[in-house]
Design a protein that fits this description.
The structure is a single chain. By secondary structure, the chain is an alpha/beta fold. The strands form 2 sheets. Strands 5-4-6-1-7 form a 5-stranded mixed beta sheet, sandwiched between helices. A two-stranded antiparallel ribbon has the order 2-3.
């Protein structure tokens, strides 16, 4: 009985500390859903559209745990590989890299200003916001 209680306590603690990385857009964005390959393409600098509108990605650079989850689950590369790939895309093909925001407030502000913006945030950073919408769960921690 004590072992079961200890196990339940451990599971409760783990789930309370867990965070979900989500793909977020403005509430009235034309983006309805996005599969994992399309998300990867968007954050790699390829042109991705919703309807006829090109989308642009916004990364949160000031959160190392979010960045780690993003690199692992979205692009599947190390930070150095990802930066090299973005640089190569810019130099060879003239593609723009995703915008980088230093705070979650900057990401939220950019999302609120533009219906074509797509960003990655922790789900708990947008709880209670009716102006933003989660499009996809990217990683569950």
């Amino acid at each position: 009985m004590r072992r079961l209680l200890a196990l339940l306590l451990l599971l409760t603690t783990v789930s309370a500390d867990a965070r979900d990385l989500v793909l977020v857009v403005r509430g009235d964005s034309p983006v309805i859903e996005m599969d994992s390959l399309t998300v990867r393409k968007l954050f790699m600098g390829f042109t991705v559209t919703a309807g006829s509108q090109p989308l642009h990605a916004i990364r949160l650079g000031g959160d190392s745990s979010l960045d780690s989850a993003f690199l692992q689950s979205v692009v599947g590369m190390s930070a150095a590989q990802y930066e090299r790939r973005l640089l190569r895309m810019a130099l060879k093909q003239g593609r723009a890299a995703p915008s980088i925001a230093e705070t979650s407030a900057e990401v939220v502000g950019a999302l609120r200003e533009d219906t074509r913006a797509v960003g990655c945030l922790w789900a708990d950073q947008i709880v209670g916001r009716s102006d933003l919408r989660i499009v996809r769960l990217l990683w569950r921690g």
